[in-house]
Amino acid sequence: MNASDKEVEELLLAEKLRYEECNQGHVFKYLSVLTTSEKQSLLKQLQSIEVQKLAGFISTAKEEIQSQDLCSTDTRVRPFSGKVESISSDKELALKYYLLGLDATRKNSVGALLLAGGQGTRLGFNGPKGMYDIGLPSGKTLFCLIAERIRKLIQLSEASDSMDSDKMDGRVCVPLYIMTSPMNDKVTREYFEANNYFGLPSEDVIFFAQGTLPCVSSNGSILMESPSQISLAPDGNGGVYSAMERCGIISDMSSRGIEHIHAFAIDNALTKPADPSFIGYCIAEKADCGNKVLWKSGPHEKVGVIAEIDEKPCVVEYSILSKAMAEMVDADDKLIYGAANVCNHYYNFSFLRDRVLPNLGSMYHIAEKKIPVWNEEIGAIRTPSTNNGIKLESFIFDVFPLSSSMAILEVDRQQEFSPVKNAPGSETDSPDVARKMISSLAKNWLLQAGSNLTGGMNSSLCEVVPMSSYGGEGLGAYKDRDIVCPFTV
């Protein structure tokens, strides 16, 4: 046995003691028949799992289920009692929040947090969803759109008259934190490097991988996918918080002086990263947590909404609301349970550090699944026909009940939300719909700037690229000019 083999054996022994203390020693059942490389693979998995916390996660998740069973959700759910602001039709108020957010950006206190762990499988694309080209005239991918919008926001901040001269090295910085998954982390990093980080400083693009948790049986025993592989599953987009702590993101934010974090998902082609209007609104409201929402298109649109359970803010899934609740309207005939959640959130840094991180263990949910497991009798992996185990997952909005000052901002769907989830040709949430919405927005921006648009207004595909305008500003040079559609500005 060489030195490295001996070291692996010693480390495995230490792990065995740790797992046996947690009644999970069965994961070592096949250790004697494993090759050296298989032992190394198993060791890597074992070391990545906080096995001492696993039983607590499961217990808390089961207690939540029992609590829901004992008390009807309908009796616990109430409309959100806090302030819900809409600035779409109030230009003066919108400008106030925009300038407040831009000031925070200029002070280098804003960070962007991108959830990008997904693959483009449903799109028919073999790779990270952020690398998908939705078919714009510019050919820009979802990753490129996000990065260039941040670059433009930085330019807008640097051009402000109230630029601080005492800021470190004199430049505005909006760090982009990208949560990948173990599946796409390497290729995502390589993609950004190959594209020179789309013009962002490489030191301001920080990658970290989402975590995984073991799949377990109904009695809490870790399931094995093979003699050398534990069955693992992603811990949900709510795993972003533990990943931020584990991978040093919280520490990096602290060292940079980040006070305001804007979190969003990669699949929205109209996302405004580090949105100064949203951040400014949350600052004005002294919010510890915020949510940017759209109003539901109808009472039975299948989307979660902002509400309260046991007087705490939360997202309530559409399946939980009764028909009567879903159809409730106020005096203005507006849906009471209408603030649709679209994974677009704000956090004050101290809220993440002081409230969220200490309470992560209480945020997991149980999902019963058909989990492929190793069958010793046939010597192969077997996929059961019925649910045989549990996956633990959490959602990014599970932290909302911890908020003591939640701020909700309603925005226009046509300007801010076009998810790219379904394959080309699909009627909804497809790249075709996203292209049309980006094109429509480009035409509206130029019309508002005073341009005279000619040509195929309805049928043409147009684009204002991010480096020309972040949100419709800076297009004054096109006033009174004849612009022929299709165009790219």
With helices defined by DSSP (H or I, 4 residues minimum), what is the helix count?
14
**Termini, distance in Å?**
66 Å
Fraction of residues in helix: 25-40%
Describe the oligomeric state of these chains in a short phrase. Answer: single chain
| Shape label | globular
Can you offer a commentary on this structure?
- This protein is of the alpha/beta class and 489 residues long.
- The protein folds into three domains: 3-48, no CATH class; 72-421, Spore Coat Polysaccharide Biosynthesis Protein SpsA, Chain A (Alpha-Beta Complex), CATH 3.90.550.10; 429-489, no CATH class.
- It is built from 14 helices and 21 strands.
- It has helices at 3-21, 36-48, 51-70, 73-76, 91-106, 142-158, 185-194, 240-246, 249-256, 276-284, 323-326, 349-356, 413-416, 431-448, and strands spanning 77-79, 84-86, 110-115, 176-180, 205-209, 212-214, 224-226, 229-230, 232-234, 260-265, 289-295, 305-309, 312-316, 339-348, 365-369, 373-375, 380-382, 389-393, 406-410, 452-455, 482-485.
- Strands 2-19-11-14-10-3-4-5 form an eight-stranded mixed beta sheet, with helices on both faces. The chain has a three-stranded antiparallel beta sheet with strand order 1-12-13.
- 40% of the residues are buried.
Keywords:
489 residues; alpha/beta; Spore Coat Polysaccharide Biosynthesis Protein SpsA, Chain A; 3 domains; three-stranded antiparallel sheet; 32% helix
Task: List strands and helices in order, with pairings.
Layout: H1 3-21, H2 36-48, H3 51-70, H4 73-76, E1 77-79, E2 84-86, H5 91-106, E3 110-115, H6 142-158, E4 176-180, H7 185-194, E5 205-209, E6 212-214, E7 224-226, E8 229-230, E9 232-234, H8 240-246, H9 249-256, E10 260-265, H10 276-284, E11 289-295, E12 305-309, E13 312-316, H11 323-326, E14 339-348, H12 349-356, E15 365-369, E16 373-375, E17 380-382, E18 389-393, E19 406-410, H13 413-416, H14 431-448, E20 452-455, E21 482-485
Parallel strand pairs: 2-19, 3-4, 3-10, 4-5, 11-19, 20-21
Antiparallel strand pairs: 1-12, 6-9, 7-8, 10-14, 11-14, 12-13, 15-18, 16-17
Helix pairs in contact: 1-2, 5-6, 5-10
